[in-house]
Structure formats: structure tokens, C-alpha cells
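Kindly review these C-alpha cells for lecture notes.

. . .
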Amino acid sequence: MSFSLYRRPGGVVFLDDDRDYLEMLGEVMPPDWYVRLFLRPIACIDLLHQDIHSREADAWEQQEIINRWREGALLIPEILAYWRRDGTARFALTQMAVVDYAMPAMSGLQVLGELTRWPGTRILLTGRADEQLAVSAFNRGLINQFIPKQSPDIRLRLTTAINSLRARADERNQQIWLATLTPAQHALLGDPLVARALQDILDRQGWVEHVVIGAPFGVLALNAQGAASWLQLEPAGNLHELADMASTQGWDTAAVQDIRTGKKLVDLELALGASHQPLLREAWHLPGEAASVYAAIFTVGEAFSPGLPRSYRQFLADQGERLLD
């Protein structure tokens, strides 16, 4: 298990020629998913072709942040500005396509064959007669998973499969943000114990979007209401350096000692301008198999966060009822 460098919500598309089945899927999928329902293959293909261009534009926005950072810009203000500037557009990008195999106009595999450039994950819904074809498609890498359409526990099987596939890191985003990490930082995030502990923190906090950066080292995250937080990460070997920095900036002896021993961390590198006052927060020790890291959570002020109008919650509210496209 390796911790994803960038993760956020995205759309799930369902394509099926059975109106009743499609409406049933729309009703039983979790309410915090962005779901689109398609009866016609061509309309679904057109949407996902448009999605390719939108993904390219979004990846370019992220790459430009890295380019400006290499020229001396600070990462955290740049990412927060990107989130505010984007609004909610990135949440509309489709992560997953769930396609019925047996449709009269085009089979599900024919539909997916029209989407070779679309990088999202794919699930094929199959009938009993289609399973050998689905196994062959899976072995050839055309689909990520297949599920029998008439499974009595279809809701559970689908939501479990979709959640598992959505948890996979987007390879392009991984490559973009990997540029900010040192080899030691990357290795630490790849430690399965550390990665699991970090994911537990994100789940407990209810963060729906996050990006990992190495300068400073930590996780910048958003909750569903558009409030930003900073999860600061300090490898055990860096505590003395952080304590010395705190001492030179006037923190008292007790605070400096708490930092040196890993009891607390201070957000001296959050870099949000003169209006930001560094804070001291309780820290957790996250032991790994080969190394360990200390973590503490800091709230990013409302003035810097995207806020509710640009939040995932508002995006979902704006979509209204799930209707067939």
C-alpha cells in the first residue's frame, strides 16, 4: 500500500439500455457520489471524449503549479489558489464507467473500445452468457473488473468495487506531484504502516480531497464544505531542525522541547503571508517499518480556503436529482 499523492471525488457513469435497471442504480448508489445515467451509448461516449480534454486542461493546471514552484513560488498558496480558481469544475471529471455488456446498438466492450484514450477505470456488467467474454476482456486489460448484472447483492458488489477502484491513485497526478518529494519522503509514504496511518487520519477528518507535497512536507486537504487543513509531516530525524527553527523565532523553552521530543509540531512553513500566525499543535507518532514520522493538523484560515460556494457539497447540491441523460 502506498499513500496517494493526489485524490479527490469524481463522477461515476452508468450506461445500460434497461431504463428500470438504470433508474434503480441511480437510486441505490451513495448520495455523496456524482452519478450520471445513460441509456444511449453514443451520448455516453461523447461525454467521456469531452472528459479527456477536460482532464488534459486540469492536468496542465497542476503541472503549471509545479513549474512555478521550480521558479521559486510557494506550493501551498499556489494549490489553494488553484482550488479557488477552479471552483467545482474538477469534481465533474469522470473517474469510473460502469457499462452493461449486452446492449442492442453496441456491446459494452464496443463502447469501451471507442474510449481507448480515456484514462478512467471501467467495470463491465455481464449476464451469465457473457462471463467468458468478460474474463477475456479483463485478462487483456480492457476492463478493471466485471460483475454479474443479476447478482442479488448488486448494490453491495458495485459500491465495494467502485470504492476500491476509486481509491487507486491517478498515475498522471502521481507523476506531477512526485516532483516535489525527495526520495526519502517518497519512501516514507510508500511504507505500508505509515500509508495506512495517514489514510486513517484522512478518513477520520472527513477530508474528500488532498494533495501531498514535499516542500514543506505534508498533506493539504479539503473537507466537503470547502474548508482547508494542513497535515504537517515531520520525519523523526527532522525534529531537532524544526525545534531550532522555533527557538530562533522566539518560541519559549517548553515549546521548543515539546517539538524536539515530538510531542508537538509548529507550522512555521505554512507560508500564508503576514496574516498567518504560527501555531503549536499536539502531534501523533506514526511508526513505519523502516522509519517513522510525526504528524499534526493545522487549520487553514477561511480567507485562504475555497469555502462552501466552491465545495464538493455545493457541487453535489447543484446537480439536483439523478436523471437519465
